[in-house]
């Protein structure tokens, strides 16, 4: 199905003559404008512009499409301005991306206190960063920093997460703790393999990294249960049996309530730096700072 934003983008490129001017008119990134144009050309099956070094020159098909849609787009824009006029200034909107567990733990309890609109998106960090670069998102919480030249995205570190070994409080960890204390890593690894293991599809990289950094090898086994997210793992281990490797800040409350046990932090720290990745051309910086302050206050 065609996306209406593709037509808006096409109109601005047609009227402004370059991708750069069109991106300014749309308050979007130039890569995002290119993505919309490429998607529209793929959808209609025709080339709409001739690309030159200085200007986008509409083809005959491009001219025909513009004449066909321009009146409808103008009417839509007038209607949009009419119905949005009263709320546009009162309700800024921020689009953010992160893992679902972090949103539930950090942002969800604060939503009712926000004085602006919020749209949250969950997914893989690489996909969220791509949406950030394309102007779809304003802020992403990520453990991965990408260094791209001429990018409108800046990365600001604000906290660290440490991957730790936890166990359901019905798990017998006597032998495990004995081998940890004696620093007998070969026996410790053997004992760990005798247990039931949980992991999540979006955290397997942390699982493999912890194992390699502590045992100098890749894990030679597959977890028994691979669940959608870490929240599910913690609920399954709550007063239950099994082991898992998770970021420490996601299970602190359950550890304090003795619902699960912190077994081992590793012989070396397996840590990730968490970054605020945000666009430098963001309009609503005050609202962005509000979200950042929520994170920094809860993840000291």
Automatic annotation (TrEMBL):
It comes from Winogradskyella litoriviva. This is LysR family transcriptional regulator. PROSITE patterns: HTH_LYSR (PS50931). The keyword Metal-binding does not apply. Residues 2-59 form the HTH lysR-type domain. The lineage of its organism: Bacteria, Pseudomonadati, Bacteroidota, Flavobacteriia, Flavobacteriales. Belongs to the LysR transcriptional regulatory family. It holds the Pfam family LysR_substrate. SUPFAM superfamilies: Periplasmic binding protein-like II, Winged helix' DNA-binding domain. InterPro entries: LysR_HTH_N, LysR_subst-bd, WH-like_DNA-bd_sf, WH_DNA-bd_sf. Keywords: DNA-binding, Transcription, Transcription regulation. The keyword Acyltransferase does not apply.
């Amino acid at each position: 199905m065609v996306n209406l934003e593709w037509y808006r983008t096409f109109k601005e490129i047609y009227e402004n003559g370059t991708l750069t001017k069109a991106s300014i008119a749309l308050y979007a990134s130039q890569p995002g404008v290119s993505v919309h144009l490429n998607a529209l050309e793929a959808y209609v099956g025709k080339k709409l512009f001739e690309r030159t070094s200085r200007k986008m020159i509409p083809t005959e098909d491009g001219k025909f499409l513009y004449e066909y849609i321009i009146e409808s787009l103008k009417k839509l824009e007038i209607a949009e301005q009419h119905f949005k006029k009263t709320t546009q200034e009162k309700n800024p909107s921020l689009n953010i991306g992160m893992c679902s567990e972090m949103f539930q733990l950090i942002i969800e309890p604060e939503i009712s206190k926000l004085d602006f609109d919020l749209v949250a998106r969950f997914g893989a960090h690489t996909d969220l960063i791509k949406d950030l670069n394309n102007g779809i998102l304003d802020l992403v919480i990520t453990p991965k920093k990408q260094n791209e030249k001429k990018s409108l995205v800046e990365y600001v570190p604000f906290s660290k997460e440490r991957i730790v070994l936890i166990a359901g409080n019905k798990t017998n960890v006597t032998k495990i703790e004995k081998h940890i204390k004696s620093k007998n890593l070969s026996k410790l690894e053997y004992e760990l393999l005798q247990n039931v293991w949980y992991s999540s599809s979006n955290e397997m990289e942390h699982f493999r990294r912890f194992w390699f950094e502590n045992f100098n090898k890749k894990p030679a086994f597959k977890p028994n249960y691979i669940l959608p997210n870490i929240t599910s793992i913690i609920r399954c281990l709550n007063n239950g049996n099994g082991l898992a490797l998770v970021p420490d800040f996601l299970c602190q409350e359950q550890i304090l309530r003795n619902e699960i046990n912190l077994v081992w932090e590793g012989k070396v720290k397996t840590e990730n730096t968490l970054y605020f990745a945000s666009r430098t051309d963001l309009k609503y910086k005050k609202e962005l700072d509000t979200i950042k302050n929520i994170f920094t206050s809860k993840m000291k």
